[in-house]
Amino acid sequence: MTHRLRLRVYYEDTDAAGIVYYANYLRFIERGRTEFVRARGVDQRALREAEGIVFAVRHVEADYLAPARLDDELEVETSIESVGGARITMRQEVFRDGQKLFSARVVLAALNEAGQAARLPANIRLLLH
């Protein structure tokens, strides 16, 4: 399943040249991941409160292909590549009018309250597959 999140580029997202500052793509895809897991039925706050588990980015591979600019309407596409015991790998892409601007592979780790790797509960793994 691919999740799509639409968003608009605001002035605060851009640099002095009027293009999206590179680090803001990471913010955009963070929103995409959050909405993806919410759409799959995973309540991250409840997961933290009940199981003491949170998701943390462990690794990102990013390709910046073309610039987005002020007032552009973007679409963030998020999909699961794999789900392991304590790891989730996602593919994310940002498009403007069908043109791919940014692509990333993101590895998330499930962590317990001590910051150590934690096994994802079986029901969460099923929701994410």
Automatic annotation (TrEMBL):
Keywords: Hydrolase. Residues 18-101 form the Thioesterase domain. It holds the Pfam family 4HBT. SUPFAM superfamilies: Thioesterase/thiol ester dehydrase-isomerase. CDD domains: 4HBT (cd00586). This is Tol-pal system-associated acyl-CoA thioesterase. The keyword NAD does not apply. InterPro entries: 4-hydroxybenzoyl-CoA_TE, HotDog_dom_sf, Thioestr_dom, Tol-Pal_acyl-CoA_thioesterase, YbgC/YbaW. Belongs to the 4-hydroxybenzoyl-CoA thioesterase family.
